[in-house]
Specification:
Elements (H helix, E strand, L loop, with lengths): L2 H19 L5 H20 L4 H20 L4 H18 L5 H17 L7 H12 L10 H14 L4 H13 L3 H12 L8 H22 L1
Helix pairs in contact: 2-3, 2-4, 3-4, 4-5, 4-6, 5-6, 6-7, 6-8, 7-8, 8-9, 8-10, 9-10
């Protein structure tokens, strides 16, 4: 065992906890969080689907696990570990993805216990999305009623955000509520830009446009 490395890691861990408890700004944490968000956008929107995307998500999942371990008690880290795991599950597909989805659910639920309002309620959005995209019993834990409750709570916290409006619209579309979905898509289109998240915003706007076209076809 490398004693020096272990002691140094423990000191860094205690410093992280102390900074968070005292509500002291942590530029290193914020920088790594933004870097993870940007890496996720690159993998999700710019990496070809298939083995390349799965490998990239696998590497990013390991990175987010380390980030969470280094910053215990930080809901933001747990949220992004959950987001990466749920995205990796989507890229992986099939029953093999269910384990990742369950890990994502656990991390997002833990984030809600720590700080429900972290990252403008992103844990509610991501957890709600998991509940309507994962198969229901007996295969998985999917539950549309739970999804609706969580997504509506996300909108209460962040009513103008691009993600809560898009995902609630997607949920409504998947449940055949086409007319109800349209206003949320239009609100998502008008959402404020997120500094440093340009790739994510561009990719999400493409998804909004595609879903809006499908909604309009359904409505005739």
């Amino acid at each position: 065992m490398n004693i020096t490395r272990t002691v140094t890691g423990a000191v860094a861990l205690l410093a992280s906890i102390a900074c968070h408890a005292a509500n002291v700004p942590d530029p290193a944490f914020d920088s790594e969080l933004l870097s993870i968000q940007q890496a996720w956008a690159s993998v999700n929107y710019e990496t070809p689907a298939g083995d390349a995307r799965k490998a990239a998500f696998n590497a990013l999942e390991k990175r987010t696990e380390t980030f969470t371990t280094q910053h215990p008690g930080r809901a933001e880290a747990l949220i992004w570990e959950g987001i990466v795991e749920s995205s990796y599950a989507g890229a992986k597909g099939g029953l093999g993805a269910l384990g990742l989805a369950k890990e994502a659910r656990g991390n997002l639920e833990a984030a809600l216990k720590l700080d429900p309002g972290a990252l403008n309620g992103s844990a509610y959005t991501s957890l709600g999305t998991l509940y309507y995209r994962v198969p229901g019993f007996p295969i998985g834990f999917g539950d549309d009623d739970k999804a609706r409750e969580l997504l509506q709570q996300a909108l209460k916290i962040n009513p103008d955000g691009i993600d809560p409006n898009y995902f609630y619209a997607d949920f409504l579309f998947e449940n055949g509520e086409y007319a109800a979905a349209l206003p949320y898509l239009e609100k998502a289109e008008r959402a404020p830009a997120r500094p440093g998240r340009e790739v994510a915003d561009k990719g999400r706007h493409a998804e909004i446009a595609a879903l809006k076209a499908k909604v309009k076809r359904k409505l005739g």
